[in-house]
């Protein structure tokens, strides 16, 4: 090869190598840009999810507080309905019941292993309440 040809070959190699490196740099930059764009999109998505979950948590806390208040009011109502004074007053006024006299009460000894409710259910009996004025 002549000097001139060798010089041209070197120059061509330099240019082609430079073009290949420039193309490689361009592809690297493109991939870096794509990676950064994806990272930013993920950060925005994550932040929006955090905000959305924050709203849901605050709504659930408000609902929980409301249900706890309702539960407290139901417990209070249950206690007032189960009051013995109230039950006695209703029995006397609305049901016409009277307090049992000493001769009307009969105590039955408890038998071990016998469930009174199960025995009544087996006999198809319902407990009956004596009204005032009924004779024993």
SSE sequence, one letter per element: HHH
Helix content: over 70%
What is the count of β-strands? Answer: 0
What is the average of the pLDDT values?
81
Strand content: under 5%
Tell me the structural class: mainly alpha
* Overall shape: rod-shaped
Q: List low-pLDDT spans.
A: none
The N- and C-terminal alpha carbons lie at a distance of: 139 Å
The main sheet comes to:
none
Secondary structure tally, helices: 3
| Computed CA radius of gyration, to the nearest angstrom | 46 Å
Task: Describe what you observe in this structure.
The chain is 71% helix and 0% strand. The chain has 136 residues and is mainly α. It has helices at 3-81, 84-93, 116-122. The chain contains three helices and no strands. The N and C termini lie far apart (139 Å).
Task: Please give a handful of descriptors for the protein shown.
single chain; 136 residues; mainly alpha; 3 helices; 71% helix
Topology:
Layout: H1 3-81, H2 84-93, H3 116-122
Structure in a nutshell:
By secondary structure, this protein is mainly alpha-helical. 71% of the residues lie in helices and 0% in strands. The longest helix has 79 residues, at 3-81.
